[in-house]
Design brief:
12 strands; six-stranded mixed sheet; three-stranded antiparallel sheet; Rossmann fold; globular; 346 residues; 10 helices; 2 domains; alpha/beta
């Protein structure tokens, strides 16, 4: 018997593979892809793919010096990451920054040139099967199979994870209810809208009840309602004990749901931590916009409420200026992104 779906303690059952199901056989899961073989380390490079230290119980992802070269191109350059368990962690950066490369390494689909990573306590390089048991990966492009219904699509992936056929009905029911696709179970996957395909892809990533979800641009191409529904679903999954690592260009969405973020550009990590702390450290926090009686509008940076009140008192009492309007302007991830990135294209 498998454990209840979506446990909050992160434990994962490891049942022995069942005998092949009767009826039409389903193909086995594909062999691991080692794209790293396409770009071997250069001569003299220091390769440290395994971490000698003990795993930290409070982290779902650790990475140190993570580097990936494609010839002379550094897709990732000495990236360090620490992602707490149970958090929603956003990775932002321009196109070509290295976000998808980092995700592929964490998802065991790409071998780094140097450095090391640990996912759910295991090495994606040395222990890929252990990582895959605990991690669900949603790429930026959904792979589908021609003429499969939504139900058949999820059953196919249940088979690739060696989940007993007797458990498929309850598993599929639970997933479709979670992503609000129950009425579409007999619909051909190719006939779904973009938003529905994204929700189905998320359900597929949850088939084996993983501890960690890695989501590459899940909101890409979604309309505003679909984005809101996706955000609410991710927050619900977090409340159920899941850890989530997500990339997106929709920074306002990330600011509303992420506990922490990392900013990457040209393969390098520029900043990492809670958004508010990064904004404060970089001086991209709050400002106030003041409209004076002579029609002049000025903006002043302030560190908090006390400094804001002191500014207003100085303008009115000390400077004897006629203040008609005093508006607080809170900076956001878009302001942070524009300040610390340079628009570098690799």
């Amino acid at each position: 018997m498998r454990e209840p779906m979506f446990p909050t303690n992160g434990s994962q059952p490891s049942p022995p593979p069942p005998p092949p199901p009767t009826g039409s056989p389903l193909p086995p899961p594909p062999a691991p892809i080692d794209l790293g073989a396409l770009a071997p380390p250069s001569a003299g490079a220091v390769v440290e793919l395994l971490d000698p230290s003990e795993p930290r119980d409070d982290l779902v992802v650790e990475a140190h010096g993570l580097t990936k070269h494609y010839g002379n191109l550094k897709a990732l350059d000495e990236v360090d990451l620490e992602i707490p368990k149970g958090s929603i962690f956003g990775i932002i950066g321009p196109n070509g920054a290295g976000k998808s490369t980092a995700f592929l390494i964490l998802a065991t689909l790409l071998t780094p040139t140097s450095g090391w990573a640990r996912v759910c306590g295991f090495s994606p390089v040395a222990e890929p099967e252990e990582v895959r048991r605990r991690m669900g990966y949603m790429p930026d492009v959904m792979g589908v199979y021609e003429n499969l219904t939504v139900k058949e699509y999820l059953e196919f992936h249940a088979a690739t994870y060696h989940i007993d056929r007797s458990e498929w009905p309850s598993l599929v029911d639970g997933l479709l209810e979670l992503v609000d696709l129950d009425v579409k179970r007999e619909t051909i996957v190719d006939d779904l809208s973009r938003g529905m395909k994204q929700r189905l892809s998320l359900a597929r990533a949850l088939v084996h009840d993983p501890e960690l979800l890695i989501l590459d641009e899940p909101a890409s191409g979604l309309d505003p309602r679909a984005r809101i529904e996706l955000r609410e679903l991710l927050l619900q999954l977090q409340s159920m004990g899941k850890s989530i690592v997500i990339s997106s260009h929709i920074l306002a969405e990330l600011q509303q749901m992420c506990d922490a973020i990392a900013v990457i550009e040209a393969g390098q990590l520029l900043a990492s931590g809670p958004p508010g702390r990064i904004l404060a450290q970089l001086g991209v926090g709050r400002s106030v916009r003041v409209r004076f009686g002579d029609g002049i509008v000025e903006e002043f940076p302030v560190a908090g409420d006390d400094e804001q009140q002191a500014l207003l008192r100085k303008l009115i009492v000390d400077d004897d200026r006629a203040v008609l309007e005093f508006t607080t302007v809170d900076k956001n991830l878009e302001d942070l992104f524009l300040q610390i990135t340079q628009g570098i294209v690799q």
